[in-house]
Design brief:
- Pfam families: Alginate_exp (PF13372).
- This is Alginate export.
- InterPro entries: Alginate_export_dom.
- The protein is mainly beta and 464 residues long.
- It has a single domain, classed as Porin (Beta Barrel).
- It is 7% helix and 53% strand.
- It has an 18-stranded antiparallel beta barrel. The protein has a two-stranded antiparallel ribbon with strand order 18-19.
- The chain is globular.
């Protein structure tokens, strides 16, 4: 069943990709969105369409107000890691292949109803210590939801969405679809959305699945794991403001403080502006709730400021980022000051970070250059310290990696990164990067004979 399902999905993708690649850049294509359900191809309704455009707008009635759009992706990635664990488990050199395929259909039933369905296959081959949860989910329903537009007036609209769906908000600090890793996140639940030209507000209640590596074998939690509201306000020429509240439940959360049921509430805001000239991304969040019988009191703050030189050759940008993320102050007293990043994106602090957004202070200068119109380079240096010596080092997912209360050292290490992104055309891109992680005093203290880590990857992506 597995081989048959994977074979059918990959064959359909290859037929579609090969067909429209023959058309080249003459085909009309909007920029592909991170969340593919955010794309809208109704603008092709009255145009003379080639093969690719006919896939993007398939009329299902004479009035063409009932139509379907088809899209997909095939992604191949080679990963080479030396000392991913800093020598802790003596894995040493570890290279492996990742594949990801998806195929979606977007069906619009007039102006009121819409159905979006997406299959995804994430595969791993050759990793010495087996597939991680972010590597493999052989075949699953990634999105399957119904939209109902209950009210619409000019540029304002209220929509109800119910079913399985991906979520991604803000800079991905707390809720991300997790595009970098091979297996993306999704939830099942309901969402109420208000949108206008300058304001958008989402209110949602979601259940998280337990993900297994097989075919259609993921299990729904059947309880609310994530709920809240996220709003975005646009100030023309000034920037954007996000305000949010997030509720979170997990019945067995693991921190250095221990294992216990967790009920956590997050309130936060983000002020940001991208584009030419001065750019910034400022975010702060406070968390409270309960961890077992103890209280939660945690916080984070991030400053990312820079400048984009639009009128200079290569259009360079220079940025400096600084994050403070709380950790537990008194290990063993029952209360918890460790910040929980909830559902963060995997590459928040670097191309392939080994340190996650928990109990952390970092200083992160970085710069980008447009070497060609379709070739971008980014270089980063990330210096990492523990916020509290009573708490450990956590993985990018927020899972505890190294206990820290037995060491008084704060400095974790420094990551040096270089990343290249090349857009061959509108449908094909290549991304390659390398990271060198120099261990610091804390890693050297808690891991005997610790080793520096080196990471390399190359990724080829087709989208249509």
């Amino acid at each position: 069943m597995l081989e048959s399902a994977k074979s059918i999905l990959s064959k359909i993708l290859f037929i579609c990709i090969a067909s429209f690649l023959l058309i080249g850049n003459t085909a009309s294509a909007q920029n592909f969105k991170l969340l593919r359900y955010d794309e809208n191809y109704e603008f092709l309704k009255d145009s003379n369409r080639n093969f690719y455009e006919r896939l993007k707008f398939i009329p299902l009635n004479q009035k063409k107000d009932i139509y379907m759009s088809i899209g997909g992706e095939a992604r191949y990635e080679y990963v080479d890691f030396n000392n991913e664990d800093w020598g802790r488990f003596n894995v040493g050199h570890n290279n492996f292949l990742l594949q990801r395929y998806d195929l979606h259909a977007d069906i619009h039933l007039g102006k009121t109803f819409r159905i979006f369905a997406q299959l995804r296959s994430a595969l791993e081959d050759g990793r010495t210590n087996g597939a991680r949860g972010i590597d493999e989910d052989q075949l699953n329903v990634q999105n399957l939801f119904l939209d109902v537009n209950v009210w619409q007036q000019k540029d304002k609209k209220i929509t109800i969405r119910a079913g399985r769906q991906e979520l991604d908000y803000g800079s991905g600090r707390l809720i991300s679809v997790r595009e970098g890793p091979n297996a993306r996140l999704y939830f099942t639940g309901g969402k109420l959305m208000y949108t206008s030209s300058r304001v958008s507000v989402d209110a949602f209640a979601m259940m998280a699945d337990t993900v297994y590596t097989g075919v259609f074998d993921n299990k729904m939690s059947k309880q609310l794991n994530l709920w809240g509201a996220y709003s975005k306000i646009i100030f023309p020429k000034a920037g954007n403001l996000d305000l949010y509240y997030l509720g979170f439940r997990r019945d067995a959360s693991v921190f250095e403080e221990g294992i216990a049921p967790e009920r956590r509430h997050t309130i936060g805001s983000r002020l940001w502006k991208y584009g030419g000239g001065f750019i910034y991304n400022l975010e702060a969040a406070y968390q409270f709730g309960t961890f077992g019988s103890g209280d939660i009191n945690a916080w984070t703050g991030s400053i990312d400021i820079g400048y984009m030189f639009e009128n200079i050759k290569f259009k360079p940008t220079i940025n400096l980022r600084n994050d403070y993320i709380s950790g537990d102050k008194n290990q063993g007293n029952g209360n918890l000051q460790t910040f929980n990043p909830l559902y963060p994106k995997g590459g928040y602090f670097g191309f392939s970070p080994q340190v996650g957004p928990v109990n952390l202070i970092d200083i992160h200068p970085y710069a980008t250059l447009d070497l060609l119109s379709n070739l971008k380079m980014q270089v980063d240096v990330v210096l990492n310290w523990r916020y509290s010596t009573q708490d450990g080092v956590y993985r990018p997912s927020g899972i505890l990696n190294l206990r820290g209360s037995d060491s008084d050292e704060k400095y974790i290490g420094t990551a040096y990164l270089a990343n290249f992104t090349y857009g061959i055309n509108k449908y094909i891109s290549v991304v390659s990067g390398i990271q060198y992680f120099k261990t610091g005093a804390f890693i050297n203290d808690v891991i005997p004979n610790s080793k520096d880590g080196v990471f390399f990857n190359a990724r080829l992506t087709f989208k249509f």
